[in-house]
Amino acid sequence: MGLFSKEACTFCETEVGMLKRSKLASKEFICNDCKRKTNYFARMDYTSKDAAQNMMETLAQEEADFEASFDNAENRFQSAERNFKTWDLGSLRVHYRCNTRIGAFQINLDAMSRYEHIPVFYFDTLIPYRFEAENAVLEDSRRHEVTNMNANYVTVEERKDTEGNVTSCTVVIPYNNDCIREIKLQGDVRNKEEEEAFYDFAQRMNQDRINWLNHGLYDEARKNKMQMKNISDTAMAAFKAAATGGNVEEAVKQGIEMANDIEEGKVKQGFFGKLLKK
Q: Domain total for the chain?
């Protein structure tokens, strides 16, 4: 009976059979057409109606912002690769690219061709999932996990036959997101070379995460240096204004504006330490 019965999609209200719908965590149904507007890797049985709606509304902008981020990437820590790099993980072909300057990456599969968007993932969420109460603030212990450079969160699981030969491998990417929790990329393997491709891909992702952390530490040190110089320059400008009858308040105001711009990443340290607006 359930196989032939129809239920209305909670988003488009189209009535569809069991083979063309999924049940959300909040007990409503979503049809396959609406599901293709969400994240391919999201599990609908983990996903509430509100979460699915949020994905539909934000995926396009996230994808566009990620594409635009390559135009602003700096050539440091091999920070960005606009073109997808392809890994043949046994019988599964995976396309991957990342921008470690902003800490984001994309994974694309042939099976995603009917989905509207290639989702964007973030390295600061690439940690083992843990349930948190709604509106809970990320605890300090989790922040330590995010910034742990010694952690290789992306791992490889092997499946062997009775003779101990590896028959398939799975790259496991943990993700601390209520709708996803982990991404699994599984493919059958026939030889050692195909098996090693899984470990190569996992190592690449782990290294990209470390590069993102290194870039963040570099940016923080550079930002601190720029703030110290701005404090010195502002004090000098205020002193000069006071000595010459100039506008001290204006000098201080400009220093505060510069400090805010530095904090927001709107200025960079140029040649010989000169502060230049981007």
A: 3
